[in-house]
Write a structure and sequence with these properties.
Structural class: mainly alpha
Distance between the termini: 68 Å
Strand order of the largest sheet: 1-2
Radius of gyration: 26 Å
Largest sheet: 2 strands, antiparallel
Oligomer: single chain
């Protein structure tokens, strides 16, 4: 069946003539450009009759070309058993409705609800079709033999550059933004870091802040996760090579049911973020920020930023701003979102399955329970290590922060406030980057502890960075096994593979090398800054944390570029960068004689 929506091919590249669809895509690109121009450049498009006439013509061409394409493929659509008919009908209906509202009607004559519906539906339609068309690139990237690592790097680069372009639009900022600062902000958002060179609250307009939060969401989830979902939903299938790539992107250990895995990732992400935003909103005072819409935006922005471990805030001093610094309910919600976003989607799935089995067991009478239902849900080794390591680090770091900062940054809080503050200070270095205290006033010991926590970071398969909790746990287990004289690493009656141990120590070594090189270069480009400040900044950038001792905005352009590279490498992974550079060597069929090397 010659149906481009079902196959993993773009109609633009099909051998058969698809000129209506080609015309449709051409005018769709023009429409996206006009949308960006309208939102980002023109101050008031309602006064421009020439602009409205151009929009009318473009919309009419889009609707007409899509109707022709739909009619030319009507037989294939009616015979299709998948979602093809839905998207075709949606495209035609939406564009016809939008064009009907706009043709011969100036925007200034539309009622409030008509204007809102027209623009909202149009924006949603553009986003939907953009994701669909972008998802078709998977097959062609595979044809060029791009490995998962290179595709991951390429997707982040494209998103960063596109974000930089959007942040440079006049409507995104109150004052002109330099290219370096726009690139830094875009990289920090996409890499969910949170380091800022300009104040997010005062430098960016609401339009610019929406751009930042969208970049955070796309960077946290990963473009490939979203495009994989839409690619499958509207194309109906995955090629085998695409399944291999998507398996690596979503950290799934099986090829079957990949669509379900991706769907659950998106579902849980939006559900948790929506719940967090709701609780944050109702935790705010009624007079906070002045208006209901501003409070909702604050809640949505901080919920997404917390779950994605980004650390961006719409307040100049972050969560240290009065009266938020004493809003302990808000801080506990942020802590919860950071932890959930940082333990990894795989662990979230296991926790969900365990909870589902537990609820099903207690709701089922004992006489009707199956043997499997009576059994306790068993986590795999990775989930067990991640949960245990996260809890151990969380408890120890909270106690240490409480003791170290009791008479410093926690001095202004009461008993419960000190506990919440210590918990927040222990959680936020785990790649989140929010601050409920003045970081520059922390004790030296607490700063060193924060650097260690930033370096360890979140868990694999999460929105966070760092070397990851599992890597740190494997290093500790390996040290313990060496101390005991064991020739292998064992945990919970399982033998951990040598490959995992080698990869863990490679990650640790590379992280220290990249951070060390970054500190060395920035100490040369910015010699006036202290070593502790530079070290803190480099660890924060590489681990995609976002905490700073107040020097980010004062970095030289060269220093900012170094931090941009540090954030990028830390987000995609140093191992991923090296794998994408070096050509993979086939396994050798021979083995040299083994010889020991003197270590100590």
């Amino acid at each position: 069946m010659d149906n481009p929506f079902i196959r993993n091919e773009s109609p633009l590249l099909s051998q058969k003539s698809n000129w209506p669809y080609t015309v449709y895509i051409f005018f769709l690109i023009i429409q996206i450009g006009l949308w960006i121009y309208q939102r980002g450049v023109i101050e008031n498009t309602l006064q421009s009759s020439e602009y409205n006439l151009l929009v009318t013509i473009v919309h009419s061409c889009i609707a007409g070309s899509m109707v022709l394409y739909f009619l030319s493929r009507l037989k294939q659509y009616t015979n299709s058993s998948d979602r093809t008919f839905f998207i075709a009908l949606w495209s035609v209906g939406m564009l016809v409705v939008i064009s009907r509202w706009i043709i011969n009607v100036d925007d200034s004559n539309l009622s409030g609800i008509q204007y809102f519906l027209t623009r909202s539906l149009l924006n949603f339609h553009l986003l939907l079709l953009g994701l669909i068309e972008f998802s078709r690139l998977n097959k062609y990237l595979a044809a060029f033999k791009f490995g998962p690592g290179r595709i991951l790097i390429l997707s982040f680069l494209v998103l960063i550059l596109f974000g930089t372009f959007l942040l440079l639009l006049p409507a995104a900022t109150h004052n002109e933004l330099s290219f370096i600062d726009a690139l830094f902000t875009s990289t920090s958002a996409v890499c969910v870091t949170g380091l800022i060179v300009v104040d997010t609250a005062t430098a960016f307009t609401p339009f610019g802040q929406w751009i930042i939060i969208i970049l955070i969401q796309l960077g946290g989830l990963g473009m490939m996760t979203l495009t994989s979902f839409f690619g499958f939903f509207f194309q109906g299938n995955f090629s085998y090579s695409s399944q291999i790539y998507i398996k690596d992107f979503v950290n799934s250990d099986q090829l079957s049911d990949l669509f379900k895995v991706v769907s659950k990732i998106l579902f849980f992400t939006f559900l948790i973020e929506a719940t967090g935003a709701l609780i944050i909103y109702f935790s705010l005072p009624s007079d906070f920020l002045g208006s209901t819409s501003d409070r909702w935006f604050f809640a949505i922005f901080h919920s997404i930023s917390a779950f994605c471990n980004a650390g961006f805030s719409t307040m100049t001093s972050g969560l240290y701003e009065f009266p938020v610094r004493y809003n302990y309910t808000l801080q506990l919600v942020i802590v919860f979102l950071i932890i959930i976003g940082g333990i990894g989607f795989t662990v979230i799935m296991h926790l969900y399955n365990a909870l589902k089995q537990y609820i099903k067991r207690i709701r089922t009478p004992k006489r009707k329970r199956s043997v499997k239902l009576n059994q306790t849900y068993k986590f795999n080794l990775n989930t067990t290590i991640v949960i245990r390591t996260t809890l151990i680090i969380l408890v120890i770091s909270t106690i240490l922060m409480f003791v170290l900062e009791y008479n410093y940054t926690l001095r202004e809080h009461d008993g419960f406030g000190k506990f919440v503050g210590a918990l927040f200070e222990a959680v936020t270095p785990r790649t989140a980057g929010f601050n409920s205290v003045d970081v520059t006033q922390m004790s030296f010991a607490a700063i060193i502890l924060t650097i260690l926590l930033m370096w360890i970071g979140a868990s694999p398969g999460s929105t966070g960075g760092g070397i990851k909790t599992s890597t740190f746990a494997l290093a500790v287990l390996n040290i313990i096994s060496l101390a005991k004289g064991q020739d292998r690493v064992e945990f919970r009656n399982r033998h951990i593979s040598t490959q995992s141990i080698k990869r863990a120590f490679a990650v640790i070594s590379l992280s220290l090398v990249f951070i060390g090189i970054s500190i060395f270069i920035v100490s040369f480009t910015d010699p006036d800054l202290g070593f502790l400040q530079l070290s803190f900044e480099a660890f924060s950038a590489f681990s995609t944390v976002g905490l700073s001792l107040g020097i980010t905005g004062s970095l030289s352009p060269a220093g900012k570029i170094v931090m941009v590279l540090c954030m990028f490498i830390g987000r995609v992974g140093a191992i991923t960068v090296l794998i994408s550079i070096f050509r993979k060597v086939s396994s050798q069929k021979y083995q040299y004689p083994q010889e020991e090397i003197l270590i100590s």
